[in-house]
Amino acid sequence: MPKTTTFIHLTDLHISNPAVDDDHLHSDTSATLAAILADIATLDPQPEFIVATGDLTNRGDVDSYGHLKSILKASGIDLPIVWLIGNHDTRDGFYKGMLGRDTNTDAPYFHDTVLAGIHVIALDTSVPGQVGGNIEPEQFDWLEAVLKTHPDLPKLITLHHGPALDEDQPDMEWESLTIADSLKLRDTLKGHNILGILSGHVHYDRLSNWYGMPLIVGMGQHAALDPRAFPNALRMVDGTSYSIGIVRPSGLTMALVPQPQTRVEKHTVPMETLKEYVAKAQRQLHAGPQAAE
Ligand SMILES: [Fe+2]
User: Fold this and answer.
1) Residue 158 near residue 53 (C-beta atoms within 8 A)
2) What is the DSSP string of 189-208?
3) What domain range is 133 assigned to?
4) What is the crossing angle of helices 137-147 and 179-189, to 10°?
5) How far is the CA of 250 from the centre of ligand 1 (A)?
6) For residue 202, how far is its CA from the centre of ligand 1 (angstroms)?
7) How many angstroms is it from 128 CA to the middle of ligand 1?
8) Residues 113, 82: contact at Cβ < 8 Å?
9) How far is the CA of 5 from the centre of ligand 1 (A)?
10) How many Å from the N-terminal Cα to the C-terminal Cα in the chain?
11) 196 with 121: CB under 8 angstroms?
């Protein structure tokens, strides 16, 4: 009987400190996470680990990470969790609130581990103050080195911003890694035993074959992007899900587990408006803090 391994993919948890009135929170993310964790507790067999691919919190403040930890504790779930950070997180808040670390709190958080015979590699694609993602050169150097370790094990690549699918649309880089870093990632992963790539950020269940590798984006646990309105508008509706990953000798399967959802509209932004907003934020970022409004 071949060995089968299961794990859980969470993403875009957007947990928010309940003591703060958060007008950018579109659903009760704490209740959603608690319900999903209760669901996971009933799975038989129990998964071996959880991967949470960023946007762990909605605002990146220390107390929201504390709240996330309290939800986990209350759930009784005691599985290894691979944490990643996204554009809604802050490195400082994550290190302090999640890991209890007070030094070097602006460093990118990338790491790898072996869980149940799978080499899990977690990248930090967040760029402070920016919506889209990138991978800085030192992290690429690290990735190249770790890919050579555990050569007998399949590699699960995890990151918040998935690679860009449209390499001719630089004005859409806010929804992914930059095009340049996407291509560099493709070249870095080439020739390695890549089980799959797990990511989040765009808030809809999306499955791609990216240069021969499975690329899985999770809808996440906050609100859902309506793919019918994309790319003309960013229409967010009520909806969440999580995924069960199943690793067999034949490869990776992701079983999507949609949660009860009304698909009622939360808000809609025309794509041109969004692009203008992202371009303005980008200009401010590159001009330095003095130019920020
Ligand atoms: Fe998100």
Assistant:
1) yes
2) HTTS-EEEEEEESS-S-EEE
3) 5-291
4) 20
5) 31
6) 7
7) 14
8) yes
9) 27
10) 61
11) no
84 and 160 Cβ atoms separated by less than 8 Å: yes
47 Cα: distance to centroid of ligand 1 (angstroms): 24
- Residue 136 in contact with residue 127, Cβ under 8 Å? no
The alpha carbon of 249 and the centre of ligand 1 are apart by a number of angstroms equal to 32
- Could you tell me the sign of the dihedral formed by the alpha carbons of 229, 230, 235, 237, in that order? positive
Helices 62-75 & 29-41, crossing angle to 10 degrees? 30
pLDDT by residue (tens digit) across 90-149? Answer: 999 999 999 999 999 999 999 999 999 999 999 999 999 899 999 999 999 999 999 999
- Given a cut of 80, whether residue 65 has pLDDT beyond it is yes
Residue 19: Cβ within 10 Å count: 9
Provide the number of structural domains found in the chain.
1
The CATH code of the domain that includes 146 is: 3.60.21.10
Question: Do residues 86 and 132 touch, judged by C-beta distance below 8 A?
Answer: no
Q: How many CB atoms lie within 10 A of CB 129?
A: 13
12 CA to centre of ligand 1 in angstroms: 4
Q: Tell me how far the alpha carbon of residue 200 lies from the centroid of ligand 1, in angstroms.
A: 7
**Using 50, 70 and 90 to split pLDDT, how confident is the model at 198?**
very high
In the prediction, which pLDDT does 230 show?
86
Distance from Cα 148 to the centre of ligand 1, integer Å: 31
